[in-house]
Amino acid sequence: MTTDAVNKKRPQKTGGVLLEFFGSMNLAITLLVTVGIASIVGTVLKQNEPYQNYISKFGPFWFEVFNSLGLYDVYSAVWFLLILTILVLSTSTCIYRNAPLMLHDMRSYRLGVRFNSLNAFHCRREWRLQASSDALVGRLMPVLEAFGYRVRSKGYEDHLVVAAKKGAINRLGYIFTHSAIVIICIGGLVDGNLLLKWKAFSGDIKIETRDIPASQVPQESRLPVGNPSFRGSVNIPEGSSANIAFLNLRDGYLVQPLPFSVDVQDFRVEHYSSGPPESFESDLLIHDPQAAAPVEATIAVNHPLIYKGYAIYQASFSDGGSKLDLRLWPLLGSDAVPEDVNGAVFEDIDFETSMGPLTLELINFRLFNINPVMQEGTGKKFRNFGPNFSFKLRNELGEAIEYENYMLPVDMEGRQYFLSGVRRTPAEPFQYLYIPVDPDGGIERFMQFNTRLHDLERIMATARGTAGQSVSPTQIGNETFVDELTESMARLVTLFTAKGFDGVVEQVDASAPEAERASVLDAYLKVLQTMLASLYTELLADNGVDLSQGISERDGNFFDDAINAIGAVGNYGAPFYIQLKSFEHIQSTGLQIARAPGKTLVYLGFTLLIAGVFCMFYVSASRLWCWIDEDDGQTRILIGGTGMRHKRDFGKEFARLEGVLDEQFRKF
Amino acid sequence: MAVTREEMLDSYRRPSFWQTLTAVDWLWAVLVLSGSGYVFMRYGAVMDVYEISIMAGVTAALAGTGWLWKPVRTLSVCVATLTLFALWRYGGTLANQETDFFLKYMLASQSAIMWMSALYVMATVAYFGALFARSEFTGKVATAMTWSATTMGIVGLLVRWRESYLISPDVGHVPVSNLYEVFVLFSIITALIYLFYEGRYRTRELGGFVLLVISSAVAFLLWYAFTRNAAEIQPLVPALQSYWMKIHVPANFIGYGSFALAAMIGVAFLLTGKFAFFAQRMPSQDLLEDVMYKSIALGFAFFTLATILGALWAAEAWGGYWSWDPKETWALIVWLNYAAWLHMRLTRGWNGAPMAWWAVIGLFVTLFAFLGVNMFLSGLHSYGEL
Ligand code: HEM
Fold it and tell me: Pick from A43, A142, A280: which is nearest to B8 by CB?
């Protein structure tokens, strides 16, 4: 018998304990604060980056630790979802326990109030009058009603209670807000695609991490067409179409086939006259096998297309494989002629070069490059540098250097340059090579000059000429001396073309005693300068430039700029400079495609939340009770009341009520 | 009995809201209505249905606010007069701001905002002066300065709105789109909420504390304007070209403003509890707590609204109502923080110093959501990067 009783009671008890636990206010507040703190983690640590970035940031050990804590995608981490679930459970429990009470409370007048509890109110007042209780109630009720209360009265054996209340829908506020939380979280969890995440977690779905064409992605990384809720993205070049979207998940992706295909007709970026982009738009054609005709639509940022519950958004844009006509100008040889090559962005081209086999990987083309330029006084200004393209040169070992070349000359403080940016890792900023533009607006003169500086024979000839002139009379005829001088002058030029001015400085540092370094360097630089100038003058003369008036300022500037650029060529890392001759711009639009059936639920929750919050804060609920009985042969009336959220304001109202009642009761 | 039940009801019933409206109130409504009617007649052709509904909403809100809180009318009339005067001086030529005396020194948006800044700072000093010297007159001056600063601030924003269109019609936009503009908005809204409570509770003692926050905002604003050239009107990036912005941002700033106000009342509360000097001068702690609660409740309500509007906007612009973007997440954190505060007060009956401290800490959480996110974290909310 005893065991039976225990067994019977147990379930009830555990239920009660659970209810107690989940419904507790302490838990609720702890959860609110915990969700808050957990959310901070996700904002401090950048989410959903490529795993490689995390590894290089934290090192392999901490990378693993953070990974197992789910910190790279906090908001889908098991523990985070668990906290949210507990919050939902807790709030539901809270509603389950409180809502019936509150609904009852809204309707109830609580006529069974006790004298003592009335007497405990902060706002209370007692009168003793010579009047029948009926007469009192007759006076009292209309006044209370005039104050906006709903009133009920009830007679007991020895006393009479009049109870009044107003603003009861304040209570609905509680029910609305708390149900709203539950509804929003459920809607959010539906759209958060728990099932999918669970399957990926348990291995039913395999996350694809390889960079392969979508058509080769195996079946186990593909989702069913009718998948009710997802949010994916896809890049579609102009003139192409796609019928899939990619869902990024952890360190890989899944493929979501669509029941229609999206054909991108055109993508446009409009610019404000001052430069920044004004709009991004895509003209789409939706081909749906179930529809009679394709659906035409233009989408833009803030203006998505909703098609059969699939929402298609303009999210980003990129290059779609622009065709580029390139000219390769050799930088290192003496007899090289430029070579023309056709390529397209995302294409790889292999070359045999003086630096061994190299792969040219074309990675991007950009039509507009609005760059900040600092201007005196006015601060930052923006200027369009025109089209550029970027590429990598990868050697046999797989090492790559990244470049970014501008097509058009860029004006810097009145002089014009072709800019070519170089960097060895993506983390660095680009270092620029400034190739001066020749008077014809081209790059030819620079390239000729550069080639000549790599032509040892020519350098020797020039050096011999220069050496002959600078030899002192006593040494005329000293052939070995002239030879040595010529040779060392030529070596200086070669050193310079290979390593720039830094190379010369290094050489001096290595060979001259410390005390003489400054003077030796000075001498070296003078010689070098003379050599370079002679070579340059020869070039000008060969090109038919009239030098009878000396070198023009413009040609002089060109020389300075060319020397600076050639000094840097040694560090440029590429055997050629690639000039963009012309291009055909093909863009690709980045679409986000989403299906969110939970949205309706979430929006319902939003409505309830707003309604609830305003009910709670701006409908003031108050209650009054009047206790009327006989005491010492007089009628005693005690009125007490409370305003639930607004004690101060209620105090004022109570004072006004007292005044009115004083006046009413005076007539007795 | 001589008095009938009906007569009695009539004499004690609080007159219904509509019955309390006087002829002046109706005149006010007519004025507001004709003002917005005029705007509609001029610009109705270029407004879309959302803009028309927003304007209708603003009209109703302005008329209603003017009924409930009378000083708003004087404010509106001053603002309207000054703004119209400025627009008239502009007469369609932006360059007039360099040559016209009134524009250059008073009413061009940047000048007006400079006046606003100066007046708020002076008001802060005056409020504290009034508090220390217990000078009623200084207090009145402080109030007048705060009203004037607010007037100039609103004029500054409205004129700026027009200026953006004078630059070029496609650049034109409501001035709530970058950090400079929202700082002005923040100052104005915080001041207005404060002024409301000042009138309601007939107390000027809190002024200095609240204006301290506004002065800090002003200091930031000036630093930002001078070092980053932030006052320049920039065209809107595509993501911000949405009618949602027009309601999302102001709703947010009612939230931020109220939270800032609550925090400063928290500071006042703590000082009052600690130092007799303040206890003798400040209103009762009871009142402080009440205003603090009301302010947080107001902020919470509008912040909820703003966050929801933000979610609706995100659904339209980015394809999801919630993306756990840092700004969104911090809005959630702020919201949870104040939800916890409200729970503590309402269900646990917490009060006194802990709640005041919490309100002060809340300001830092809010500040991070407002500024810190833009400064330290990157995300989709790209407006107003530092
Ligand atoms: C998790 C379990 C929760 C419990 C047990 C709980 C419990 C309560 C209770 C008992 C009240 C007072 C109702 C009254 O007396 O009128 C209340 C009020 C309130 N709750 Fe919750 N709540 C929970 C979660 C939440 C959540 C997640 C939010 C939203 C962030 C929330 C927001 C509010 C608000 C704003 C009030 C207003 C206070 C008022 O004016 O009454 N609650 N809550």
Answer: A142
**Reported ipTM:** 0.89
Buried b (16+ CB within 10 A) or exposed e, B134-173: eeeebbebbbebbbbbbbbbbbbbbbbbbbbebbeeebbb
Number of folded domains that form chain B? 2
Residues B207 and B321 in one domain: no
Nearest to B53 by CA among B65, B40, B38, B64: B40
Show the tokens assigned to A308: 């059969």
Given pLDDT bands bounded at 50, 70 and 90, which one contains residue A357? very high
Domain assignments of chain A as residue spans, ordered by start: 21-107+169-191, 113-167+620-665, 205-318+587-596, 323-440, 450-577
List, as ranges, residues 273-312 from B with C-beta within 8 Å of A.
286-287, 290, 297-298, 300-301, 304-305, 308, 311-312
Closest chain A C-alpha to B384 CA, distance in angstroms: 15
Q: Which of A302, A304, A599 sits opposite B241 (nearest CB)?
A: A302
Query: Class of the A113-167+620-665 domain?
Result: alpha beta
Give the model confidence (pLDDT) of B331-372 as tens digits: 999 999 999 999 988 888 788 899 999 999 999 999 999 888
pTM as predicted? 0.82
- The pLDDT-based confidence of A639 (bands split at 50, 70, 90) is very high
Are residues B222 and B296 located together in one domain of the fold?
Answer: no
Asked whether residue B323 is assigned to any structural domain, the reply reads yes
The 3 state secondary structure assigned to B182-223 is HHHHHHHHHHHHHHHHHHHHCCCCCHHHHHHHHHHHHHHHHH
Lowest mean pLDDT among A496-500, B60-64, B206-210: A496-500
State which of A26, A85, A94, A96 you would mutate to test the pocket of ligand 1, scoring each by most atoms of that ligand within 8 A of its C-beta. A94
Show the domain range for B176.
71-236
Q: For residue A275, is pLDDT > 80?
A: no
Nearest to A206 by CA among A242, A249, A246: A249
Does any domain span residue B23? no
pLDDT of residue B126: 97
State how far residue A567 is from chain B, nearest Cα, in angstroms: 37
Same domain, B201 and B306: no
| Residue B347: strand, helix, or coil | helix
Q: Are residues B254 and B165 in the same domain?
A: no
Give per-residue pLDDT as tens, A141-150: 888 888 889 9
Are B225 and B254 within one domain? no
| Together in a domain, B264 and B303 | yes
Ramachandran quadrant class, A531 (left: phi over 0; alpha: psi -120 to 50; beta: rest): alpha
pLDDT tens per residue, range A296-344 = 999 998 899 999 989 999 988 888 889 999 999 998 877 768 889 999 9
Window A:69-108, CB contacts with B under 8 Å:
74-75
Tell me whether residue B61 is in a domain.
Answer: no
User: Could you tell me the pLDDT band of residue A425, with boundaries at 50, 70 and 90?
Assistant: confident
| Contact between residue B270 and residue B357 where contact means Cβ atoms under 8 Å apart | yes
Q: Given B236, B271, B289, which residue is the final one in a domain? A: B236
Q: In sequence order, what are the residues at sequence separation of 6 or more whose Cβ sits closer than 8 angstroms to the Cβ of residue A157?
A: none
Same domain, B215 and B311: no
Question: Is pLDDT above 80 for B16?
Answer: no
Residue A39 in contact with partner chain B when CB distance is under 8 A: yes
Instruction: Tell me how far apart the alpha carbons of residues B294 and B175 are, in angstroms, rounded to a whole number.
Output: 29
> Would residue B368 count as lying in a domain?
yes
Domain end residue (candidates: B201, B236, B271): B236
Record: contact A313-B319, CB cut-off 8 A: yes
Same domain? B99 vs B247: no
Of B11, B287, B344, the CB nearest to A29: B344
Output the CA angle B69-B74-B75, nearest 5 degrees: 85
